[in-house]
Amino acid sequence: MLKLIRILYTIPNFDTAGSGKALLNLAKHLDSDKFDVHIACKTDKGELFKKVQESGFPIYIFDFEAPMRPLSKLISKSLKIRKKIKEIAPDIIHSFHYNNNYGEALPAKMARVNWLFTKKNMNWGSDGANAWKLRSAFAKSIIIQNTEMAERFYRGNSKTVLIERGINLNDFIPTNSIKIDPDGLSANPEDRIIITVANLAPVKGIEFLINSFSQLCQDFPQWKLWIVGDDSTEYGNSLKMLASTQIPETQISFLGKQSNVRPFLSEAEIFVLPTKGTGEGSPVALIEAMANGKNVIGSDVSGISDQLKNYPDHLFNAEDSISLTQKLRRLMKNSKDENIRTGLKFKALAEKKYSIEREAKEHEFVYENLMGA
After folding, report:
1. Residue 31 per-residue DSSP state
2. Phi/psi of residue 309, nearest 5 degrees
3. Tens of pLDDT along 5-60?
4. 126: burial class by Cβ within 10 Å (0-12, 13-18, 19+)?
5. What pTM did the predictor assign?
6. Which one, 196, 202, 271, 339, has least CB within 10 Å?
7. How far is CA 5 from CA 130, 154, 162, 288, 363, in A?
8. Cα(75)–Cα(255) distance, rounded to whole angstroms?
9. How confident is the model over 274-326, as pLDDT tens digits?
10. For the chain, where do the domains classified as CATH 3.40.50.2000 start and end?
């Protein structure tokens, strides 16, 4: 019997955006006849942690990152982490951390374990550029999530492998649920819904969507805007204040953070992702909307432009309310049947390119190459 390849996934916690969900989803879909999955995180907090426990994967709670400064602490802490790594005895460590800390890579190198990471965002700024370079130099492989990452950060680097995100497609098949509003009450059957689903942070550019919808809502009184995401933050509160000055209360709803977005997506015709120019990695919310059969539009930035490259007419200029308004007006003028027909094309695209099974197979190929299998 062949020895299983032991993968240790590392992540700070299971409460940060969609990273924890993406890790668990991937881990569950690896071939269990080939891979032995273990997980390390710094805390047992987070709403997803119980699901990780239920998965049955061995979990280790410890700080797997040495401080990058001063050098003496980097070395001393790395030696302690190296000892823990030796106890777990992974063949490969795959970091799902979003930051540039190379204090995770050094202990792995000391333990002579293959270490790789997924580059999940478009950050590289001058303050952290050297740290990113060191993190990348330590890595045996670097999983990138869109083509612009290769061009902007890793031109000519043979370590990079492009793997776009995948989802459980069956989780986003449209439901036949009744109309929903924030209070759980049935809404007007004639309502037509535009929706955005996002981790409500300034980079998501939701204010541009609000500004654009405010230019259109009087001409299209049957249309409503639903915003799904944690609106209890400072940014969320600023969005609610902005909306209150521009859009009738009956035409906009802040639905808060939702653990299951499918019922909300299922009621919508149009999905909008108005991310600012800093861009995305491989935005899963857009994939989920496509899998649900929505007519989607997004800003022309990294990540989104990859997913919609065959549909350039569904891209608008980032941070440009006029460009977004023009796109929205065209889609809002469509009949429901027209939006449904276009949505089915996006559903087919999600089924062809963005399944979790495809993502898992591509990761397996990387791991086996690292091990020379």
Report:
1. -
2. -60, -30
3. 999 999 999 986 678 889 999 999 999 999 999 999 999 987 789 899 999 999 99
4. exposed
5. 0.92
6. 202
7. 32, 28, 22, 31, 13
8. 47
9. 999 989 999 999 999 999 999 999 999 999 999 999 999 999 999 999 999 99
10. 5-166+355-370, 169-353
CATH 3.40.50.2000 fits 169-353, yes or no: yes
Count CA atoms closer than 13 A to 315's CA, side-chain side: 18
- CA gap 225, 155 in Å, rounded: 40
Q: Which two tokens stand for residue 283?
A: 């935005």
Bridge partners of residue 10, in order along the sequence: 40, 95
Contacts of 309 (CB under 8 A, 6+ apart): none
Given a contact cutoff of 8 angstroms between Cβ atoms, the answer to whether 294 and 271 are in contact is: yes
The length of the chain is 373
Tell me the two tokens of residue 279: 């861009």
Q: Rounded to the nearest 5°, which phi and psi values hold at 185?
A: -95, 155
Decide if 207 contacts 186 (C-beta within 8 A): no
CA 298 to chain centre: 15
Residue 32 token pair: 């269990």
pLDDT tens-digit series, residues 128-175: 668 899 999 999 999 999 999 999 999 999 999 999 999 999 999 988
Looking at domain 5-166+355-370, its CATH class is: alpha beta
Distance CA 358, CA 367 (A): 15
